[in-house]
Amino acid sequence: MINRLPPQHRTRTRSSFQRMGMTLVELLVVIVILVVLLSVAIPLMRPAFKDRKLREASRQVNSMIARAKARAAETGREAGIWIERRNVDFADPLNPTAAEINLARQGLQIYICEVAPAFTGMTQSSVASFGFIDPSNLPSEAPPLNPAQPTSSPPGGDYYLELKAAPGASSPRPADEQLLMTMVQTNETFRIKFDNRGEWFLCKRIQDPRDGREFVINFPEGPPAYAGGASFEIVRAPLRSSREPVDMPGDTIVDLSVSGVGLNGLDPSNGAAVGYLFDPSNFPPRADNISAPVMIMFNPDGSVASVFFANTSIDRITNTTYLLIGRNVNTLNPKTTDLTASPTNLNDPSTIWVSIGHRTGLVTSSENAAIDPSTLVAPGTLEANPGVLLQTRDIARDSVRMGGR
After folding, report:
1. If DSSP codes are grouped into helix, strand and coil, which group holds residue 314?
2. Same domain flag for 369 and 246
3. Which of 35-44, 146-155, 267-276 has the lowest mean pLDDT?
4. Which of 220, 236, 252 is the last residue of a domain?
5. Which of 174-196 are b and which e, b meaning 16 or more Cβ less than 10 Å from the residue's Cβ?
6. Which domain holds residue 198?
7. Are residues 257 and 336 in the same domain?
8. Domain assignment of residue 27, yes or no
9. Which of 256, 282, 343, 369 is deepest in the core (most CB within 10 A)?
10. Please, are residues 303 and 315 in contact by the beta-carbon 8 Å criterion?
11. Residues 191, 92 share a domain
12. pLDDT tens for residues 280-305?
């Protein structure tokens, strides 16, 4: 038997279903309210999304540094990060424009790199010797490693480098030197250490060699006293890994216009702009220098071994290296950009410093400290106010001292 609801119950149920719906007017009111709320909320959320990209970029840089240090510990040789600058199609490689130089201030990709095993000669008796070069004898295509090269006698300056089978041996092209020529390309730099001790010296294979001289070595304070030659150890510039790089996310970059070594803008010993060491304004204005990557190398124990940039290197790192993670539209020219009038990554408190301690390789990430415009002297440029880097890196410096985060 089928039970049926009384008529009054059926009417009441139908009415309750009808009351559960919304009228068209009510629905439109809800939609309008949601649109108004979203129009207010989205602009407020946009800066948070941008800041999230910066934090993501800093984590990627930290991760690549950790991978490089692990690689150095694994191989027992130097390994590091290779910061690739934005690819620029130079109209005139010998005279880059200001716009081309500004693009080269942006680091967009990070690779792992490492040095190949050292070359010590083909026999145990192999030695290296050197002789002073008068820079007037060098071709124009092969500028000296030291721009302040003396034109008379030593001590400091560029010398030619020769490899020999034994002390006092003479040959127009020794086998050791022939092998080195197959390893090192023209205009490529490399490093050499004598007698398996002491410091590394910078060398370069030059173009259009005169009198059979292929290699130039620079001794800033004069050559070591090795009569007839000495045993040697040659290490080429780091080689980039074939693995896929890490791309900086979104519009973020490593801002190489203000990245460098040390807290302040200038090295008190020689006035060099080491605080923003990687900016192209510090290099001879040639495309090969401006487009050269920045490489930060680590020893197997995790300490910073050397820094490469503009086809040269610094092998005695005695201070923290700072990399600023910023946005691609806010790079600056240290010599011309007025920090009081222009938006830059340096006066943006949302940008992030990644700091690398030289002794232990400790990596920290810190907010960029705000610039006090009242402390800047005219014309407001970084070059005129080198102490501004000390001001913006204040939080980063404290993080390094406290052990980072």
Report:
1. strand
2. yes
3. 146-155
4. 236
5. bebbeebeeebeeeebbbbbbee
6. 127-236
7. yes
8. no
9. 256
10. no
11. no
12. 888 888 888 889 999 999 999 999 99
Q: Would 28 be classed as within a structural domain?
A: no
Look at strands 201-205 and 239-240 and give their pairing.
unpaired
Buried b vs exposed e over 301-329: b needs ≥16 C-beta within 10 Å? ebbbbbbbbbbbbbeebebbbbbbbbbbe
Residue found by looking up tokens 């002073």 in the block: 132
Overall number of domains in the chain: 2
**Total-model pTM:** 0.76
Sequence length of the chain is 405
Residue 25: inside a domain, yes or no? no
Q: Answer with the one of 182, 206, 236 that is the final residue of a domain.
A: 236
Distances (CA, A) of 295 to 202, 220, 255, 352: 16, 22, 14, 19
CA separation (Å) from 18 to 4, 9, 10, 227? 21, 14, 13, 106
Determine contact, residues 294/276, Cβ cutoff 8 Å.
no
Query: Is residue 29 one of the residues assigned to a domain?
Result: no
Which helix (H) or strand (E) segment holds residue 279: the answer is none
Lowest mean pLDDT across 232-246, 287-301, 370-384? 370-384
